[in-house]
Write a structure and sequence with these properties.
heterodimer; A: 160 residues; mainly alpha; 68% helix; B: 330 residues; alpha/beta; 5-stranded parallel sheet; two-stranded antiparallel ribbon; 15 helices; 49% helix; elongated
């Protein structure tokens, strides 16, 4: 549980809230005093320890819902599972993409004949910035935009 | 003492303070963790009231320090009772003469006085101001530092020191350590942001204007005997007024005042005349009253003319039309 609180505090920080270590410790202490079954009480207790500005309350509420509903974890697990599966199959994602890129650039498979969607094209040409923009747009629509650090755990970003 | 969050809510309600679970949770935590609470929010929503009722519910004395710009440490902590010291020197003039006898030089006399000065800077000449009072009191107390946002950063720094250790050193006398940690409430009207260091020490509680249902409950608690329909109309109107861009948005205190005023005038319902006449109870600026008039006429016009049982269904009976966007009256 403590690890999750620290992770949550990190998430808040990345979204602009100023959460100090001392306040994270306050959150631990607060949870010791309360039963963790009531979600509302849990939310209020964390808010009292971690959120010190009226303007930040709305952000906190959104992030709380996203993080503690397991969505954040699901997303992370999905990414990890996908990349693990690919490397288990012996597929070197990097090499594959390189080959496809060469194919597209050299014109061996003329672009006009392949009916590539914008997303597919961005993926194949390794156009990371365009890819990121698309993900952001989709995220904004679904309300996931707030999870800024999640977007940095990308398929491609892991390779460094 | 509080057993649980529900216990807090129940006990506060017994004191006539209606609050939601969120407020009760923070009060419970502050009590258990012995941390101060920084209560922020617009004026008149019940921040100071919260401190009062928690003190009453826990049987603690409420010690109040009202902050203002220029409040210095002396006024908050302690002062020497100068007039008393002067009086004593006058009365004891003879004795002082005896003590000074035999001194041959000014320096010797001064030294001899120096040996005695602990007499005039002792316990009996200290006037404890709220903070020292809170530290030295025998019984557990509640300390309310009201409108802390009005004080200056210098005072805030000093407050930090006191709040962390709850001990104070008077150089001439010694160090006072609190026997019991007080339950500390700091209230702020958001005039300025408190320093990070202070916020870090406290649990934070933001109290906003209440929802319609809660405000109705508060009204019925504070003004017992008010007609249900009148209360509903009143609350609906207040909720609507708060959407308008006013110089001084009316808060719960104003709702209660208005209800009491209407009762005093034996008004049974919110007619246009009555509302116009009592506007000044809830709005204190001419410009606000003008803006509100427009809003209220609109609201009155939109209400169903027949005030039978059909109209009295839902609590939000006063606004069948969609509420206007904010800033419409600019």
């Amino acid at each position: 549980m403590q690890r999750k609180i620290v992770e949550f505090a990190n998430l808040l920080r990345k979204s602009g809230l100023r959460v100090s270590v001392a306040e994270a410790i306050d959150a631990f202490e607060a949870l010791d005093e309360l039963s963790l079954e009531d979600r509302e009480v849990f939310r209020d207790a964390l808010r009292a320890s971690l959120v010190k500005r009226g303007d930040d309350v709305a952000t906190y509420d959104q992030l709380f819902d996203l993080y503690w509903s397991g969505f954040h974890d699901n997303l992370k697990n999905a990414f990890e599972a996908a990349s693990a599966a690919l490397s288990a199959d012996g597929i070197d994602m990097e090499r594959l993409l390189q080959q496809i890129r060469e194919m597209l650039e050299s014109g061996q498979v003329p672009e006009g004949e392949l009916d590539l969607s914008d997303l597919a094209r961005a993926l194949l040409t390794g156009d990371l910035s365009e890819l990121e923009q698309m993900i952001r747009a989709a995220a904004a629509q679904s309300g996931v935009a707030r999870i800024e650090n999640m977007l940095q755990i990308g398929f491609f970003g892991r390779r460094t | 003492m509080f057993d649980s969050v529900q216990d807090v809510q129940k006990q506060l309600e017994k004191q006539g303070y209606i609050c939601d679970k969120r407020i009760a949770t923070v009060v419970f935590l502050a009590h258990r963790l012995e941390k101060p609470i920084l209560v922020e929010g617009p004026a008149g929503v019940g921040k100071t009231e919260l401190a009062k009722v928690v003190a009453a519910a826990t049987g603690r004395e409420l010690i109040r320090l009202q902050c203002y710009e220029g409040l210095d440490v002396a006024k908050a902590l302690y002062e020497w009772e100068y007039s008393k010291q002067l009086l004593y020197t006058q009365i004891l003039k003879e004795k002082i003469g005896e003590v000074m006898e035999g001194t041959r030089s000014l320096r010797e006399a001064a030294e001899r006085v120096g040996q005695q000065d602990s007499v005039f800077f002792s316990d009996q000449f200290v006037v404890p101001r709220p903070l020292l009072h809170a530290i030295t009191t025998d019984q557990p107390c509640a300390l309310l530092i009201d409108e802390v946002d009005k004080s200056d950063p210098e005072f805030e720094a000093f407050l930090l020191e006191v709040l962390s250790d709850f001990q104070v050193t008077v150089p001439e006398i010694g160090t006072f350590v609190a026997k019991h940690r007080p339950l500390v409430f700091l209230t702020s009207n958001d005039a300025r942001e408190m320093s990070d260091a202070l916020k870090r020490r406290c649990l934070h509680l933001w109290i906003d204007y209440p929802s319609e249902a809660v405000e109705l409950k508060i009204l019925e608690t504070k003004v017992p005997g008010i007609d249900r329909k009148l209360a509903e109309d009143l609350v609906a109107m207040m909720q609507r007024l708060r959407q308008v861009d006013l110089k001084k948005t009316p808060s719960i205190a104003e709702t209660i005042d208005w209800a009491r005023a209407l009762l005093a005038l034996n008004a049974e319902s919110l007619g246009e005349e009555v509302v116009k006449d009592t506007m000044s109870v809830i709005l204190k600026y001419e410009a606000d009253i003008r803006k509100a008039q427009q809003e209220l006429s609109r609201m009155m016009a939109a209400r169903p003319p027949a005030r039978g049982p059909a109209a009295g269904g839902a609590p939000a009976a006063g606004a069948p039309a969609a509420p206007p966007k904010k800033g419409t009256l600019h």
